[in-house]
């Protein structure tokens, strides 16, 4: 009997988080992610590497739920915000973008309007009259199909029908997460369409590299963004169309800077957003071998470096968190308990014809690549 049971047990262990009877290193119970939404099944998938790092992802919204990274003492810390069960991600329970694979269009489109080939489209208006992150039922609130699931690799697929939140064209999109042996989360996006449309995908993880979001504000962390300019916004956070230099402004993060340095500055752009919620124009010019941004927590010694082939990165300093949302382990997430570094094309690009285009046409393939690289250093 034992000779039969042992191989079966081994297969269960290798099957991944979705079938594992125990909890993940981050304390998640995979059974709490087994559900359905709009008739589609949800689950939890765990990526691991030989260095002990762990990334848990749910196919609901293609969301990164937890990221376990060793700190300067070798203790694993969960460095992203999220929830303990999939139902907490459902929009009727919480309107959040925690960890999501955002689509069809990350960030804002002014007035929810865009014009393609002379035809104007009215999109979902879910944020001050604008379209934000694909609209009220964007991809963060949809169930992705699982195409491939391996020990360190997960590929997800979504088909967005013509007219989804007002966007034209049926889009088929993929997001692939790979946890590398170098403690990197490699994220790749691809998409095709059957009619002209726009697309701009990103990951919307909220990072607190201390591993203690209930008690540690990200203003205590160090941020560097490889950008000499940024796109100013109006009071509703829509870009004005200008590209301005960061020099002698609170947006000069070209050298490692304590987040607290400028986040309360008496500066109209900072006051519009209540902190950072702005797109930075990267100096990397699409070269994903060059550093785009760096975030460092002195509390844990954990550093995250961001590489991307995207032209911009949205820095969001958790300004709208207010302690009303309880996340993993019952922790309430206060204001500025996390920071987002969203690699992407610029906000409202469909209405700014001189900016890098987000138009996708039949026969073309949209692609985007981002790497989040984690390391530690002792004080």
Explain the layout of strands and helices.
Elements: H1 2-14, E1 35-37, E2 40-42, E3 44-48, E4 54-58, E5 63-70, E6 76-78, E7 100-102, E8 108-109, E9 113-116, E10 119-122, E11 131-132, E12 145-150, E13 153-160, E14 171-179, E15 184-193, E16 197-198, E17 202-204, E18 222-225, E19 227-231, E20 244-245, E21 257-258, H2 268-273, E22 277-282, E23 291-296, E24 302-308, E25 312-316, E26 340-344, E27 359-360, E28 366-376
Antiparallel strand pairs: 1-2, 3-4, 4-5, 5-6, 7-17, 8-11, 9-10, 12-13, 13-14, 14-15, 15-28, 16-27, 18-21, 18-23, 19-20, 19-22, 22-25, 23-24, 24-28, 25-26
Written account of the structure:
The chain has helices at residues 2-14, 268-273, and strands spanning 35-37, 40-42, 44-48, 54-58, 63-70, 76-78, 100-102, 108-109, 113-116, 119-122, 131-132, 145-150, 153-160, 171-179, 184-193, 197-198, 202-204, 222-225, 227-231, 244-245, 257-258, 277-282, 291-296, 302-308, 312-316, 340-344, 359-360, 366-376. The protein is mainly beta and 379 residues long. It has two domains: 2-194, Beta-galactosidase, Chain A, domain 5, CATH 2.70.98; 207-376, Beta-galactosidase, Chain A, domain 5 (Distorted Sandwich), CATH 2.70.98. The strands form eight sheets. A nine-stranded antiparallel sheet has the order 12-13-14-15-28-24-23-18-21, with no helix packed on it. The chain starts with a helix and ends with a strand.
Q: Please tell me the overall pLDDT.
A: 94
Structural class determined from secondary elements? mainly beta
Q: What is the CATH topology assignment of the largest domain?
A: Beta-galactosidase, Chain A, domain 5
Strand order, sheet with most strands: 12-13-14-15-28-24-23-18-21
Shape: globular
Rounded to the nearest angstrom, the radius of gyration is: 20 Å
**Uncertain segments:** 1-20
- Indicate the proportion of strand residues: 35-45%
The oligomeric status of these chains comes to single chain
Write down how many β-strands occur, each being a DSSP E stretch of 2 or more residues.
Answer: 28
Number of helices: 2
Number of domains: 2
CATH architectural grouping of the largest domain: Distorted Sandwich
End-to-end distance: 53 Å
Q: What sequence of helices (H) and strands (E) makes up the elements?
A: HEEEEEEEEEEEEEEEEEEEEEHEEEEEEE
Helical amount among residues, as a percent range?
A: under 10%
* CATH class membership of the largest domain: Mainly Beta
**Sheet bearing the most strands, described?**
9 strands, antiparallel
